[in-house]
Write a sequence for this structure.
DNA sequence: TAGGCCATCTGGTCCT
DNA sequence: AGGACCAGATGGCCTA
């Protein structure tokens, strides 16, 4: 990851991500063959506890199974569907001038790269399956960038919740009880409020969030209709 | 139709 | 040398 990408990720806040993911609930599932009529609508964030059950997505071991069409360079469905002229020696592509040996090498490299990207996408699918957003056929799949940003957000949320939990346990270990003694203000935010600073979290306006996180790249706020 | 997202190809660079 | 990784280019599909 280069520096600019890292800065981009660092600049994304919790709420920017919530908005970002909500944006993806407004249109039909839109990925490859999955395109189709879907009922528009926002997908609600599911409670974090739903994602703490220890469930893990199918592992994405590199070197896993691959379809045979990865091996020949031009038999993949996508390649044929695209009708790309890349490497098409019959249409005068870049490989037309190269020897049979060079072409074979190029096809091998292409297949390897394709396989690598498929592994990467499998890993992203695995990530999508364990981060908190509605997984439904009628809900559009998170984009790659949204997946990464939401995952980062989720990790930060979990880390913060864990810290709050530790503080609560430490407090209780001092001989206090929740029922007899009000929880100190410092511990009160344990839970959603700790990671969602806006009052009435679900009611926070886009403008409020955009203003608060003005450092967020504007491209991630394209959905915001009331941006200041 | 423009813009977003994606898959694929390609050449370069780095590592083993 | 071969493989992994990366970024740029290209074109297809979909949505607003």
């Amino acid at each position: 990851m280069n520096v600019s990408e890292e800065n981009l990720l660092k600049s994304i806040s919790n709420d920017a991500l919530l908005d970002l993911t909500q944006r993806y609930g407004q249109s039909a599932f839109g990925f490859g063959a999955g395109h189709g009529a879907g009922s528009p609508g926002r997908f609600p964030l599911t409670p974090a506890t739903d994602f703490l059950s220890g469930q893990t997505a199918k592992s994405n071991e590199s070197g896993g199974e691959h379809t045979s069409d990865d091996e020949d360079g031009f038999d993949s469905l996508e390649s044929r569907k695209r009708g790309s002229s890349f490497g098409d020696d019959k249409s005068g592509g870049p490989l037309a001038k190269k020897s049979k040996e060079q072409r074979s090498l190029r096809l091998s490299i292409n297949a390897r790269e394709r396989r690598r990207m498929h592994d990467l996408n499998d890993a992203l699918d695995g990530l999508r399956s364990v981060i908190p957003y509605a997984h439904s056929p009628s809900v559009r799949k998170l984009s790659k960038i949204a997946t990464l940003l939401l995952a980062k957000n989720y990790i930060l949320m979990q880390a913060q919740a864990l810290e709050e939990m530790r503080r609560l346990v430490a407090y209780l270990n001092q001989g206090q009880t929740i029922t007899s003694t009000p929880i100190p203000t410092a511990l009160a935010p344990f839970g959603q409020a700790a990671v969602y600073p806006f009052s009435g979290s679900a009611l926070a306006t886009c403008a409020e969030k955009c203003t608060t996180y003005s450092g967020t790249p504007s491209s991630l706020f394209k959905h915001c209709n009331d941006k200041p």
User: Anything to note?
Assistant: Residues 30-32, 73, 76, 78-79, 81-82, 84, 86-87, 93-94, 106, 109-110, 113-114, 117-118, 121, 143-145, 219, 222 of chain A lie near DNA strand B (CB under 10 Å from a C1').
